[in-house]
């Protein structure tokens, strides 16, 4: 450890002697954010100097930034000094066993078919050990290692592969990008790191078996996926079971880098706690997700099913730099009860003959407000660029809303950009038709909604698609009738 | 099996049915004819349980049960089938999926086991041949982009698959060319049986050339003014509806 580092520690340590927590190995830092907190977080994680420097640059930049207010959402003010920015494996104040958990939540797990041992974790029960998943995970890790794929927690990557982190971190979402991404850059806790070497097709979906491990990464998650030339990877994020979390604000950053001929498929099923039927509680999910098709003929495909959170604010985007590269965005977003979703994508065409496809399906029910916000930008250099956008909204009942804000900025005359949009109501006629064939009202609603979302579900990996369908039905329970 | 007594129904404040009486026994085919706006489609909708209609007086008994007290899906499961005049499109939901869900709901009610995909398909394929429908119909969205004739054939296919006890066909002949009318009628005729009753709601006599009814009723201004056999339909074709109304006024 350098002298400088020791000095820092001394300072940090001193300050906290007077305060709240002195034990450096304890679980949680007291609320509040300043440079010392960032130094402490970085040190606790054993990060190299460049990482700390980067965090501090971000923090100093963040101090001069303002919260964005352009999204079509209503939001209560967030007090950033009331958040604790480090929380090691949690948690002792949660329920002690499943008996203490809200029976409604348990009923939902039952319907979704969540395995018993997962239920405890999801409901936030303090469990000592991760069950049989450990051995399963180990088997898969060996298989991945054989293929040369690096897949590990972000903090491990910072320690073990600093050269990759230094080269790629912030190269798609710079630390100056936006209020929440900058905050994340300063204080991110953990997340996932993936590197797929040249020409390697990742031997499995990076998914389910790891969902257990990938959990508890805190509210400022950071993910970086790099697909080297000619490689392929499919990454699945999220979980269909509703996740309770005492942290209201979640501001994650995901960066994808696809080099020449590489292919990244990133699928999300997100079901954070949306608040109760009256709109109380619920997570604010403010995420920055962006991928760059850096090399020629590369491809990045985002597929998302968003059913959770009180407020979702999320625009998985593609920067199409490489010639002939392809960006895709397939989305189903549901807003029920008092949920607000403002989501969409940005397709930035820079290289020649770049192509993008956007398929967005918004479902509004109850008093939910669903907004599609998308930007298609064709730069002068993007000769022959093409975009196809389809935005469909489905309304259930008459107290919800659907809004569409498509922005287009075309600066090359050879571009071909198409946009189609529809808004429909689940018609009483459709419901009656199904019911007159013996199908219950609830099943009929599910059938119609799933039909509406079909174009997106077929982009999801098979098993995920089935989960997503179940999830939609559970999330829509009681939305009609 | 079906007994309608003094049925009054309205949409909002507009009275449409003003005392309909009708008795249907198993095996019978009844045709309900009448001018536009006489209440034919309302009668069909009330029997199937469509929302928006208020029954203000009268009863409908079906197999000893109070039909009007049942939810639409329960009526269907109990063997009531409505072939729609305007079948709706349900984009993205494939035809086979809807059909299978419907069949299994009905079978469950009958105490039969659910059909697996294999048995279901072979059964549906047979019925599709009868309706001269291409197999590609199964994988298309429900009525999505179907022509008028295809939609009507699809309705009868559903009837053939669900095997109802009481089928109400609402203007199934409207919008059909002569070839399609023949196919649809063949389908319906093949479903005639001693246990099954069929109520045809139609504007034109033409349909009855293909599906011969046992009884013909004239519905006008919310009431059945005259009942008879097949010859009544032929007379209506010749003379129109006015004479029936005049006769009723005199009486």
What's this model, at a glance?
The complex is a heterodimer of chains A (481) and B (251). Chain A is of the alpha/beta class.
In words, what does this structure look like?
- The complex is a heterodimer of chains A (481) and B (251).
- Chain A has 481 residues and is α/β, with parallel strands linked by helices.
- Chain A has 13 helices and 18 strands.
- Chain A has helices spanning 3-17, 35-44, 49-63, 103-112, 116-122, 133-147, 154-160, 162-168, 179-187, 208-214, 428-435, 441-457, 462-475; strands at residues 150-153, 192-196, 222-227, 232-238, 249-250, 253-258, 263-270, 284-293, 299-306, 311-314, 317-320, 326-335, 340-349, 355-364, 369-378, 386-395, 401-410, 416-425.
- In chain A, strands 1, 2, 3, 5, 6, 8, 10, 11, 13, 15 and 17 form an 11-stranded mixed sheet that branches.
- In chain A, α10 (208-214) links the parallel β2 and β3.
- Chain A starts with a helix and ends in a 6-residue tail after the last helix.
- In chain B, the strands form 3 sheets. In chain B, strands 6-9-10-3-11-12 form a 6-stranded mixed sheet, with helices on both faces.
- Chain B is α/β, with parallel strands linked by helices and 251 residues long.
- The radius of gyration of chain B is 18 Å and the shape is globular.
- Chain B has helices spanning 40-48, 72-77, 95-110, 117-130, 136-139, 148-162, 178-190, 206-210, 230-239, 242-250; strands at residues 2-11, 14-24, 29-33, 54-62, 65-66, 80-83, 90-94, 141-142, 166-170, 197-202, 215-220, 223-228.
- The chains are: A alpha/beta (481), B alpha/beta (251).
- The A-B interface holds A 427-430, 432-441, 443, 447-448, 450-455 and B 48-52, 71-73, 75-77, 81-82, 84, 87-88, 90-93, 97-98, 101-102, 105-106, 109, 141-142, 158, 162.
């Amino acid at each position: 450890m350098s002298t400088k580092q020791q000095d820092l520690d001394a300072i940090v340590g001193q300050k906290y002697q007077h305060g709240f927590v002195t034990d450096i190995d304890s679980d949680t830092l007291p609320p509040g954010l300043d440079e010392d907190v960032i130094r402490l977080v970085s040190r606790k994680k054993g990060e190299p100097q460049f990482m700390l420097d980067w965090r501090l640059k971000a923090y100093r930049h963040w101090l001069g930034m303002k919260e964005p207010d352009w999204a079509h959402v209503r939001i209560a003010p967030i007090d950033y000094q009331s958040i604790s920015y480090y929380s090691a494996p949690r948690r002792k104040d949660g329920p002690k066993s499943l008996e203490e958990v809200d029976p409604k939540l348990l009923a939902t797990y039952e319907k979704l078919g969540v395995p018993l041992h997962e239920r405890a974790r999801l409901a936030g029960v303090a469990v000592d050990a991760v069950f049989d998943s450990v051995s399963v995970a180990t088997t898969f890790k060996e298989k991945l290692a054989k293929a040369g794929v690096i897949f590990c927690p972000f903090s491990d990557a910072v320690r073990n592969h600093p050269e990759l982190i230094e080269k790629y971190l912030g190269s798609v979402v710079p630390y100056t990008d936006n209020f929440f991404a900058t905050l994340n850059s300063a204080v991110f806790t953990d997340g996932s790191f993936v590197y797929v070497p040249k020409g390697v097709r990742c031997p499995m979906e990076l998914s389910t078996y790891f969902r257990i491990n990938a959990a508890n990464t805190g509210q400022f998650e950071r993910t970086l996926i790099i697909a080297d030339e000619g490689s392929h990877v499919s990454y699945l994020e999220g979980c269909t079971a509703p996740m309770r979390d005492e942290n209201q604000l979640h501001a994650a950053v995901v960066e994808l880098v696809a080099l020449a001929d590489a292919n990244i498929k990133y699928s999300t099923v997100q079901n954070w706690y949306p608040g109760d039927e009256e709109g109380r509680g619920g997570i604010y999910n403010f995420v920055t997700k962006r991928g760059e098709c850096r090399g020629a003929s590369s491809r990045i495909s985002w597929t998302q099913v968003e059913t959770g959170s009180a407020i979702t604010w999320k625009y998985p985007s593609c920067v199409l730099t490489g010639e002939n590269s392809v960006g895709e965005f397939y989305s189903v977003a549901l807003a029920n009860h008092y949920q607000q979703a403002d989501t969409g994508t940005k397709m930035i065409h820079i290289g020649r003959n770049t192509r993008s496809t956007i398929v967005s399906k918004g479902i509004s029910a109850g008093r939910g407000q669903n907004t599609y916000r998308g930007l298609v930008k064709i730069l002068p250099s993007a000769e022959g660029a093409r975009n196809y956008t389809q935005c469909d909204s489905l309304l259930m009942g008459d107290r919800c809303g659907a809004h569409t804000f498509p922005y287009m900025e075309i600066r090359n005359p050879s571009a071909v950009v198409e946009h189609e949009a529809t808004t429909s109501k689940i018609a009483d006629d459709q419901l009656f038709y199904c019911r007159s064939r013996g199908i219950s009202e609830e099943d009929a609603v599910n059938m119609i909604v799933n039909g509406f979302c079909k174009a997106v579900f077929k982009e999801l990996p098979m098993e995920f698609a089935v989960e997503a369908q179940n999830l939609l039905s559970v999330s829509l329970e009681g939305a009609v009738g | 099996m079906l007994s309608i007594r003094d049925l009054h129904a309205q949409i909002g404040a507009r009275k449409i049915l003003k005392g309909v009486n009708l008795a249907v026994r198993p095996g019978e085919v009844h045709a309900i004819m009448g001018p536009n706006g006489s209440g034919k489609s309302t009668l069909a909708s009330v029997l199937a349980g469509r929302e928006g209609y208020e029954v203000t007086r009268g009863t409908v008994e079906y197999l000893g049960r109070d039909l009007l007290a049942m939810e639409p899906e329960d009526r269907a499961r109990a063997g009531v089938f409505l072939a729609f005049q305007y079948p709706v499109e349900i984009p993205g939901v494939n035809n086979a999926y809807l059909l299978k869900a419907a069949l299994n709901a009905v079978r469950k009610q009958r105490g039969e086991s659910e059909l697996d995909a294999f048995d279901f398909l072979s059964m549906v394929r047979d019925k599709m041949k009868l309706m001269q429908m291409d197999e590609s119909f199964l994988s298309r969205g429900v009525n999505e982009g179907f022509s008028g004739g295809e939609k009507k054939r699809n309705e009868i296919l559903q009837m053939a698959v669900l095997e109802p006890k009481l089928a109400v066909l609402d203007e199934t002949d409207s919008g059909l060319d002569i070839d399609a009318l023949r196919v649809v009628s063949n389908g319906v005729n093949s479903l005639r049986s001693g246990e099954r009753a069929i109520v045809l709601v139609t504007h034109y006599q033409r349909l009855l050339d293909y599906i011969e009814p046992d009884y013909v009723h004239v519905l006008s201004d919310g009431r059945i003014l005259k009942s008879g056999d097949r010859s009544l339909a032929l007379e209506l074709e010749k003379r129109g509806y006015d004479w029936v109304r005049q006769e009723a006024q005199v009486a």
